[in-house]
Structures are given as C-alpha cells and as structure tokens.
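Quick illustration, no need to memorize.
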Amino acid sequence: MRMKQEKLQQGLTLALLGLVGLGLAAWAWLRPADALSISERRKLAQKPALSVQSVQSGQWMQKFESYSLDQFPLRDTLRGLKAAVQLGVFCQKDNNGVYLQNGYASKLDYPLHTDSVERAADKFLQLQKTYLEGKAGHVYYALIPDKNYFMAPAGGYPALDYEKLAQTMRQKLSPGMTEIDLFSTLSLNCYYRTDPHWRQEALVPTAQYLAGQMGVSLGDDYSETTLQRPYYGLYYGYAALPMQPDALTYLTSARMADYTVTNYESGRESPVYDLDKAAGNDLYEVFLSGPVSLLTIQNPHARSHRELVIFRDSFGSSLAPLLAEGYSEITLVDIRYLPSARVGQFVDFTGKDVLFLYSTQVLNNSEALK
C-alpha cells in the first residue's frame, strides 16, 4: 500500500512538472515576442523563419535556441531571483561582477593591468610623435576615476591601485604632456547610480577646473532639463536586482543653441543633445549622439579663439559641451573607432591644444584603442 502511494506521488510530481514545462513552452511560443530588454539594454532574438534550407544548415536551431533563451517567460524575474539568492543566501558579494553599495552599482575592475596602462600611454606618445610635435600647442592629459575609486575601499571590495596607475602614466607621458588631476574635483554623487558614466549636471566645477588648467575660463549659468523616460544604466541589467532607475539631466544655455556640431560619420550637422536617442536602448547617447569616431563643436560666441582636440572615450560626450564655451572649436576623436594611423587624414593639429581624456577603465583595458 505504501509503495503504491509513493508511486502515485512520484507520478503526480512528474505530471505536475510536465504540465509546468509544457505550460511555459506554450507561453513562450504563443506570446508576442519582446523586441528589447530594458534592463539589459539590448535587442532580443526574434522567432526565426522556418525553411528547409535553414534546418539543413543548422542555422534554424541555433537561432531558435537564442530566441528561446531571450524570450523565456519571466526571464527578468528569474534573473532577479538568481541574483537575490546568490547575494542573500550564498552571501556572494557581487552578481556578474557587479556589486551594490548605498544604492550605487559598480562593476569590479581588478587587478591593475600595468601592461595595458603602458600600452595606452605608448599609443598617446605615438600620436604625439606622429601628429603633434612641432604643430600642436599645449598637450595635456587627464584621468577619470571609475566609481570603484569611491566605492570599493568602503565596501571591502578589491580595487585598482590608482596611485600606481597614475604614476605609470606620469612616468610615460611626462614631461611632454601636462597632467591635470581631476580626482579631487569628483565624488561618488557625480556619477549615475546604475551606470558607469558621470552626470553632466554635476560636472560644472570639474569642467571649470579642467578649462582653467588649460588657460580658459567657463561660466556656470546653465539650465537643467530632465528626460521624462527613466534611465536604466549599464549596471542595472548586470546586477539583475531591484534598483531605482536614474534620471538623465542635460545642461543648456542661450549660447549653446548657436553651437554647430558636425558628425563626420554621418556627414551631417547634429544637435549637441540628440533627443532622438532618448527612444533608444542607451539614454546616455543623447550626449553628442553617443559613440562617434570624429566630430567637431563650433562656438561662434567663444570666450577665446583657441581650438582644442580631445582624444576621448564616452565620458567626453557629456563634458565636451561644457568645455565648448571656452573654445571656438573642439574636435573630438575616439580612437576606439578611428584607427590612430588615419587620424591625420581628418584632423589638422596646427596651433591647437590637445587633451587626452580617458577613464581608468579604458586605460586598464586598453585593447580597444586602435
């Protein structure tokens, strides 16, 4: 009798699991596919078209597997549950390399890759030797600390040796380039909580200090405009934990309305703040249209006739519009997309000041610099 009851229980359990599995499969197959994941900021795989050729080649199964994983019901809920169990039950300190502290999320970047930092410095020296010597005005460099600089020590997380990183750059680049120390001008609240980037509305003192070190003055009479759509930054998706989204705010002024931004990738003029990007996956691309290899900002009401070339990563997109007040023209070059060997085909450095402005994350992972 007891054996019959156990077999009945096992049968019911298997039947229940089978029904749950079939129900989830039917739900995944019949429900409309989501176009994108807001939390992961990426497009999701769509149902592949079925054909004899795609089945024979094996492509249909590969695409269907990606589709099944991306469109699995309650996917975000299950990702959040997994993250909560890892942190709350198994006492792990991070999820997918992302940790939370006082409402801020950051991604571990450790240890210091000295060879990567030296590679970046050598790339800057190569650019200086090839294009700047005997042509450019003053040459500067400035490092942008990531959020771990402010968060990791307090939370007991491993972090880069920032002093060694700065010293490595200093030994490589001095005396040919003048260092501008931005670390003391920044704090944790200068950054988004869910994203690695800094908040433009918090950067006016940093921009003023940076410009002042280069001999240019800036004002501070800006108006703030906040996008209505919430900003789910890069770390929001990685963390897969409940977090309040950020608000993205940009600064405007009467003089900024007359700036001319030329995007050399599209061959067209574009706005300082590309509000069409507010409908995309990454709201930070509102600043100067996001990752663009080469563009210029011209200011007919500049406080000086000086011109500046900035070699930069994505942090420069939100800072450059503030610096543009002090220069008649700023050229932004991103050698993650424009190879260094081709820069001279597009940029004339004669008489222009040059700034190398890079985050510590890029320097510690400099393989992307071409």
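The mean pLDDT is 84.
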